[in-house]
Amino acid sequence: MKLGVTGFPPLGFRALSMWLGLPVLWAVLRVQRVPFAIRREDWPELAKLAINNMIIWHVLAILAVQALSSGRAAILGYTMPIFSAIWGVAVLGERLRPRHVAGIVAAGIGVSLLLWHEFATLAGKPLAAIGMLIAAAIWAVGTQQMRRTTIAAPTLAIVFWMTLASTLVMTSATVLFERDRWTSPGAVTLAAIGYNAVLIFGLAQPIWLILARALPPIASSMSVMLIPVLGTVIGAWWLHESLHWQDGAALVLILLAIASVMWPARGPRVAAPQVGTL
């Protein structure tokens, strides 16, 4: 994404990726023989899911990615699991196990360590940083809503229509705000568009939303915490962004956070049958 929006309008980049990703997603539904139909009474809820899971996230995230380093953007964006846990406890009355609380704390400390050397730079681009945090917070709400949706349709069908709605919004936004900056994409931008179209919108995003609907919110959201670590490491390797000892410590903490929610719980012990006496 960072390479794709370097010198190219970010909303246009996202719109092109989505238009090329929609046929891939359509083909997946056809191959899987998933019905596309959504009941008319479910359209309002579908709109809410699209706004909170995709539209706000994709608009704010792609704008922030252009302004921030790739590692920084990933770190801020994937604070989502922390927002999701706070939302679940404060608003939805969820009860967390002690190991879940420990995992959230570990993830929070890990994110803070990843940002250790970034605060000075973030201070120079506060709107981009705030925008990414807002996107993460709203995405967290969407994750909770996805888990609790009552739409009587397969998740892949929901994803397809949410993606189409997001594509139309993104296209309208680039027409309104970026028309004077449109240019022919170069080879690097085209490669990034293709990658996002096939692997992100055609594969990764549907898998994520299926998991978000099938797993408890704390498990599904915390499972993506490795992404900011990968974003930081790959940004250092590919885009020459600096790494520090805090990044290694953050990696350990985030792995512990993931393990805290993904490790199988022990089942109840079954008492051994007592042998009666004659």
Written description of the protein model:
The chain has 278 residues and is mostly helical. It is 74% helix and 0% strand. It has 13 helices and no strands. It has helices at residues 2-5, 10-32, 43-67, 70-77, 80-90, 98-114, 119-124, 126-148, 155-177, 187-214, 217-222, 226-238, 245-262. The longest helix has 28 residues, at 187-214. The model has no long low-confidence stretch (mean pLDDT 82).
Layout of strands and helices, then pairs:
Blueprint: H1 2-5, H2 10-32, H3 43-67, H4 70-77, H5 80-90, H6 98-114, H7 119-124, H8 126-148, H9 155-177, H10 187-214, H11 217-222, H12 226-238, H13 245-262
| Secondary-structure element string | HHHHHHHHHHHHH
Helix content: over 70%
Major pleated sheet: none
Number of strands: 0
Number of contiguous helices: 13
Strand content: under 5%
CA(first)-CA(last) distance? 76 Å
Tally of individual domains: 1
Basic shape: globular
Q: Which whole number gives the mean pLDDT?
A: 82
Secondary-structure-based class equals: mainly alpha
Question: Summary?
Answer:
The chain is an all-alpha fold. The protein has 13 helices and no strands. It has one domain (2-261).
List keywords for this structure.
0% strand; 13 helices; 74% helix; mainly alpha; 278 residues; single chain
